[in-house]
Amino acid sequence: MTNSAGPKRTRSIRIGSIFIGGGNPVAVQSMTATATEDVDATVSQIRMLEDAGAAVVRIAVDRKSEADAIEEIRRQTRGNLCIDLQENYRLAEVVAPHVDKIRYNPGHLYHHEKARPVSEKVRFLVSVARDNDCAMRIGVNCGSVDPDKVGEFENDSIGAMVSSALQHADLVEACDFTRFCISLKDSDPAAVIEANRQLSDARPDIPLHLGVTEAGLPPDGVIKTRIAFEQLLAQGIGDTLRVSLTVPNSEKHQEITAGNQILEDVKNGRFRSVPTFLEGKLNIISCPSCSRVENDAFVKLAQDVKSMTDYARNHEITVAIMGCRVNGPGETDDADLGLWCAPNYVNFKRGPELIGAFPYEEILPRLKEELDRLIAARP
User: What would be the CATH architecture of the domain defined by 13-267?
Assistant: First the structure.
């Protein structure tokens, strides 16, 4: 699909065998949900996603053993691979020879080597990308924004995200590197729309990767994503995208199917979105299943939470279920009730307050108790 609102303004960048921006078709991406160290399972899922039409497949890497697996994964696959660097940014030099794109989160650059200036870390990443013919993505998420930006933009999460993205665009370009795109992701479709509009206005030349993070289970997760994508794509904003769904590993291809369907509908003028999502209603958000998830029980827990909470569907309450320690702590803070899943237990939060940690088999009744208290306390 090309832009229906007029000529593309973004520059064209290459990711392996494809180009995004510059009027090229919008590329649909996905992310593996297998353990990266499990080479056979990861290769199998990459092939499944590529068969479904994925233009790029992203793989999370957070430790040396995962990085070491990438060489063999690359040997057994043909498509365009992106590495999602988590908190250990230095692993870029291990994986870059075997992939086509590197994604880093500006907020995560503060977790390692804290005394080293962020600008130096960015220069390192750019040098690795350049030396290995890789594109880059600056990926800003609502729950892991640069802490300095959070302080500067108190009560303005969108402003903090946009400012962080623009700052890192400047840092990357100061290294004479322009082969990058930016993503601004939130679990609220309205925030995704506004953040991407602001960034597109400020830097219309930079290609944008669209996504609604923690969109959740289908069909709600598809609806949330569709709301954001329809409005942005119709304005000519967006050069590549991912639909982030909480689904079992065998169903990850649904992300590609949903993404292509949204593109086809926008291309043909079929719009299904509404101005607000679930206003006055229960809102269940959950992160997409990916290789960062530390217990496969996370997906079933998300499904069980959705079923159990159906009785509260007419109450304006947000329940968040996160699958790992990367997204969990920060990205449940804004929910009324939040669950983030460790390997053997579930951390349970009321807003930013930690209530406690509970075994998987005990968390549903505990969640219901808190949900009932919340309902009873509201008018």
Answer: Alpha-Beta Barrel (3.20)
